[in-house]
Amino acid sequence: MIIEIGHFSVVIALVLAVFGIVSSGLALRTRDADWVRAGRMALTLIFILLSVGMAALIYSFLARDFSVNYVATNSNSQLPLFYTIAAVWGGHEGSLLLWVFILSTFSTIAVWLHWRTQPAIMPYLIGMECLVILGFLLLILFLSSPFDRLIPAPPDGKDLNPLLQDPAMVMHPPMLYMGYVGFSIPFSFAMAALLSGRLGEEWIKVTQRWTIFAWVCLTTGILLGGYWAYYELGWGGYWGWDPVENASFMPWLVGTAFLHSVMVQEKRKMFKVWNLFLIIVTFSLSLIGTFLVRSGVLTSVHTFATDPERGLYILIFVTTIIGLAFGSLMLRANKLKSQIEMDSMVSRESVFLFNNLFFLVATATVFLGTLYPLMIETWQGAKVTVGPPYYNTVFMPIALGLLFLMGVGPYIPWRKASQASLKKNFLIPVVVGVVSTVVLFALGIRSFFALTGAFVVGFSGAAIFIDVGKISSLYARRESINLLKGFLSAFTSNQRRYSGLVTHVGVLVLVIGIIASTVYQTEKVVSMRVGDEFVIDDYRVKLERIHDVRGKNWSAQEGVFELYEGDTLLTKLRPQKRVYDASQTPTTESAIYAKNMGHIFLTMPDVSADGVAVARGVINPLILWVWGGGGIMGLGVLLNIFRPRKREE
Amino acid sequence: MTRTTQITILVVLLALLSLFYQGLWGDPRHIPPVLVGTRAPVFEGPDVESGEPMSSEHYKGKVILVNFWASWCQECKVEHENLLRLYDKFKDHPEFVMVGINYQDEIPKARAYLQRYGSSFPHMQDVKGALAIDFGVYGVPETFVIDKQGIIRHKWIGPIVDNVYANLTKNVLTPLLSDPNPAT
Amino acid sequence: MFRLIPIPILLCFVFPGAGLAKVVDETEIDQRVREIAKTLRCTVCQTENIWESGAPLAHQMRQAVRERVIRGQSTEEIRAYFHSRYGDYIMMEPPKQGINWLIWLAPFLLLFGGGVLLWREVKGWVTRTPPHQPPPALDEAARRRIERELHENQ
Question: Is the per-residue pLDDT at A116 higher than 80?
Answer without folding.
Answer: yes
